[in-house]
Amino acid sequence: MCGRYVLVLRPAELRQRFVDAGLPVDEAPSDDAVRQSYNISPTYIEPVYRIDAAENGTQNVAAVTLDMTSATQTPSTSTPRYIIQPMKWGLIPSWRKNAPDYSTVAKGINCRDDSLAESQSMWSSIKHRKRCIIPAEGFYEWLNKGSQKVPHYTKRADGQLMFFAGLWDCVQYEGSEKVYTYTIVTTSSNSRLQFLHERMPVILEPEEIRKWLDPAVFQWNDRLQRLLKPFEGELTVYPVTQEVGKVGNNSPSFVIPVNERKDGIRNAFGRQKEMASTPKPKHEQHGEKRRADTPPTEEKDVKSVPARSAKIIKSNTASRKSPKKAKSIIVGGNKKITSFFTNERNSS
Question: Are 28 and 12 in contact (CB under 8 A)?
Fold first, then answer.
């Protein structure tokens, strides 16, 4: 599946990337119309690439003319418009009368490729005319490792954008404006990702995108179905920080491999927890210090301390009771957490 992905390019930059790939763009939103994020989650409004020729089940007859003898349409002299449009992630079908709750929306973030092969499914009225592309720089997936789930980031090895196959729809609730929504099509994972999850997004190359969005095709067929296959190119996959798991968190550090992060704070706290199980001299019964520019390890962790002013943080990690009250630790603006642990070890 695909439940989180990354796109931090602004619409103007994104438009140029499409053009560089040989994909025309006749219209794109302003830079403030969509959210740039390292942690895109369901219900976020993100850019979607499509042909502006179909809406609410109708076809723009100025762009194509019907050929009743086949499952395709014959293009007229009018050229279809290719647009990048802001849409909400989590497809809501056009026939809904009231806004669904979050759990219902979450069911529409992905569409299985095998379900599109079925004649009777929730996608039957959409797949014929409302196909789209969702651009991404990479996506996250979680590896089940015992009782833990370890987030991994996947991107193209060549550094190019990923183009996810998708479907879109437009709904208008009673007394409200139109809402455009989308879903990402998934398929079986390729050999590179099978260790991580059994499914992955369908990633299309530019030539495949032209077939997927072909305005002359208004009925689902085998040619479209064959496009929905595991990605054959090279992918780079590595574990990343657990912070990406919380919706709303957003940081460039989310796409940095864990073993390359410079803060080292998690390893430091991990060592401190291991040491807590053994008796310690009284002078080591102090609270931990951490750099002001590093994120908390848990939601209940202490708040960040501005680097330019010293603050007092009371001890909260003593492993056993002490006859003396633990001394407060003064965190200086530039003192590193590593120096604290070094001094503690030396003093013992």
Answer: yes
